[in-house]
Write a structure and sequence with these properties.
By secondary structure, the protein is an alpha+beta fold. It has one helix at residues 4-26; strands at 30-36, 41-42, 47-48, 54-57, 66-81, 84-96, 108-113, 123-129, 138-145. The protein has a single domain (4-145), classed as Thrombin, subunit H, CATH 2.40.10. A six-stranded antiparallel β-barrel has the order 1-5-6-9-8-7. Strands 2-3 form a two-stranded antiparallel sheet.
């Protein structure tokens, strides 16, 4: 038996979700593609499988990109390999909840277009994917530059 408080809470969250989702998607002013390399974790072999790269998120016209929000999170981060320091950016990426294939860690995001031009044509490797909460109007991912930043500090 569901009590009145639980029912009211559930209905309130459903309404909030319906109201928040259009606002979240309306703020997605960038175009991205997401590509999955390999076939994922192979438990039997204890390693990542190899395979043909598969684009899992793109627009109706391949390569043009699909709606997303791209915001700088932290960066550039300095990493030293040998004598020369390299700088990598971190970004937070938002995509609609209605995607057919959910992104995973290690998928690669290509920023096709965004108002922040320093990120255009840059690739980022997804390092985390949000797993929910009470009110989730979009899928949120954190990603780190798959190649050094174009600018330094």
């Amino acid at each position: 038996m569901v009590n009145l408080t639980q029912l009211m809470t559930q209905r309130s969250l459903e309404l909030a979700q319906r109201l928040a989702q259009p606002h979240a998607e309306g703020a997605m002013n960038s175009l991205i593609t997401i590509t999955r390399y390999g076939s994922g974790w192979d438990t039997a072999r204890g390693e990542y499988g190899t395979g043909v790269p598969t684009v899992i998120y793109d627009g109706d016209t391949p390569g043009v990109g699909a709606a997303a929000g791209v915001t700088p999170t932290q960066g550039p981060i300095q990493t030293s390999f040998g004598d020369e320091p390299e700088f990598y950016d971190s970004v937070t990426i938002f995509i609609p909840k209605s995607v057919s294939t959910l992104p995973m860690i290690n998928d690669v995001v290509l920023v096709v277009d965004t108002p922040d031009t320093q990120f255009v044509n840059r690739q980022f490797r997804i390092t985390s994917v949000g797993v929910g909460g009470r009110l989730v109007p979009s899928i949120t991912m954190n990603a780190t530059g798959a190649a050094p930043s174009r600018t330094t500090v």
